[in-house]
Amino acid sequence: MADPTDPAAPPGGAARTAQAPSALTRRRLLSLGAAGLAGGAASLLSGCATPGTTSVNTQPTIPAAGEPVRLQYWAWLKDLQKVCDVWNAQRPDIQVEAVWIPGGNSGGYQKLFAASAAGGSPDLAQVEFRSIPEFMLVNALVDLSRYGVDQYADRYNKALWQQVSYVDGVYGIPQDSGPMALYYRPDLLQRVGAEPPATWDEWAELAAEVRKIGAYLDVFAVSDASGFCAYATQAGATWFAVDGDHWTVNMTDEATLNTAAFFDKAIDRGLVSTAFTLFSPPWYAAAANNQIAGAVTASWGDALIESVSGGAGKWKVAPMPLWQNGSQTTGYGSSFIGGSTAAVMADSKHPKEAMEFAVWMTTSRAGIDAMIANSGIGWSPTDSYIGATRQQPSEFFSGQNYNEDVFVKMATEQNPDWQWWPLTTQSFNILADAFRRKGGSYTLVDAVRDAEGQIIEAFRNKGLSIERRGSSS
């Protein structure tokens, strides 16, 4: 049977999967940030000065007869041109050139914002899910619903599609994601007579036993708030939303504070290390010395764990532990760290063709396999195909077919209500700064409360209207 996502066989107008609409429209997002953009010198990212001018999508351009459409894709994926070349060989009418840029917050976004402000952004750009609202604030992205993107919605994981969808449009094509699970060392767990924990309470009990053999079940990074955010998301937190003409925030809901209290206790009991971060040189040294028994992290962590010296055949993967309220499990089966989109930029003269390439790259078997083989992308954004190499048992992971056994299910058990917000990077920096103060009488619970107040202030400093959820202040 022919691959229905082959570029030579476009779909025949498949109906869009019904989605719970977000409360946020692009127009409302822009209006909420209008005050911050006034004067022509707003800064939408911490450390990234963005002129207040906005880009306006030009009319699509039809090339001269016999000339192909030429697209540029700016991304930090390695060897992306090899992926483009697979497409280029099949579609001589639409040719794609990949241009490497640094990772988003390592300089790539600064380049994109500067290019957009000057009216010279590429046709496509790699933009993380969490950064979509920041690009929308300066009108830098194309609403792809204008070009029939709805017909492709049912090809994508529903939670990921929701993260690029706003009431009046779709502002990116999901490119990859990072569903989470528990990587663990069976031999170290067997030394304490344990199996992988099914719940976070069981995880805490196991972490205490593992400490008795001189190992840690995991680390807690006080310098990177993305891990804590993922745990709270799994517990059911939804920090930001839009209510009428303003943003609302609630980082002190039950799910978030319970998560903070749980890790307060884990840190205080010495169950996790805060001395180093996951996949740092000290972590690799400890892992090679049998001092790391596990790690709850994203699907893309497999390649990093494979770098542990002497680790071949010693690791396996289990589902992410579940949160509990008494005897009942709560929240969701998994969470996510990372994930990006292929977004069509507002300056593109060929937005429809750019969209077609992005859909092929992220849903066709040829595109997904090429991205895995050449660019090492994270988890496939389509539930129908995870990639040929990810359907095989792994020698490193003890012969386990862990992608199909674990991550396929984890990818479908995400929090569908989570919504990203402007100033995400700055918000994470504020939260991490507060986490670093952990110690003595100062807790992670205190840090979350303090960070929420500082984030509200940061919003207002940018001219964004925001209130604590349920508050009229």
From TrEMBL:
Keywords: Cell membrane, Lipoprotein, Membrane, Palmitate, Signal. This is Extracellular solute-binding protein. Coiled coil: none annotated. The keyword Signal applies. InterPro entries: Bact_solute-bd_prot1, SBP, TAT_signal. Residues 1-21 are annotated as: Disordered.
